[in-house]
Amino acid sequence: MLTTLTISSKKDGSPISPAELKEVHTAKVHLLIFDQTLNDYQHIHPTPSSKSGQYTFTWTPKKDGVYRVWADLIPLATNNQEYVVGDIPAKVNNTFPVEKTISVKETKDDLTYTLTFDKSSLKVGESLTGEINIADKDGKPFQGLEPIMGTFAHIVAVSEDLQTIEHIHPLGAENPKPTEKGGPKLQFHLTPSKTGYLKFYVQVQVNGKQLFIPFGIQVNS
Ligand SMILES: [Cu+2]
Questions:
Q1: How far is the CA of 210 from the centre of ligand 1 (A)?
Q2: Model pTM?
Q3: CATH of 105-219, one of 3.40.1390.20, 3.40.50.150, 2.30.33.40, 2.60.40.1930
Q4: How far does the centroid of ligand 1 lie from the alpha carbon of residue 94, in Å?
Q5: Burial level of 215, CB count in 10 A (0-12/13-18/19+)?
Q6: pLDDT tens digits for 178-221?
């Protein structure tokens, strides 16, 4: 499906062209796209069209219903990361509830990813250090993550009301060499801003294949 997105300034509605945006992790615009259940997450880099402020991308929705899209970008004028939010309309206008699966351990393609935090209870406004540990099928630490868009993982956390999103990266060196490998430990900082269910996706690359590892946690007030 070909989708066109217009990015404009909140202040005066003027179109935002690629020349006004900073390149971050190999792209000027990162689209973080979620269906309503939060089970389908896609990370897409749109292409600027000839019309200023318009960006197009081709994608395949796996679920029915409206999709929410966050355009993650940094305007050169402010040098501040912003999430511009919009919805992609659907033929079927039903609403689908968020599937609040709590999960901190996920196995995909023979690798097991475990998410832990430095605090036992996660609270709104309290800064946390998260850690993802990766083990191979024999339980040994896995150190074969390949660089993907200038880092070893892209972590996206979205609140159950689809109102807030965080796009974070593991601590450590940015822009690893193409031959460098990451893992078994990915550490990151997070301060939850909402009570309730928080869905995580960790995007990594192993053996040339991109993987999205889902997690779900509960944030207390
Ligand atoms: Cu990222």
A1: 13
A2: 0.93
A3: 2.60.40.1930
A4: 31
A5: buried
A6: 999 999 999 999 999 999 999 999 999 999 999 999 999 999 98
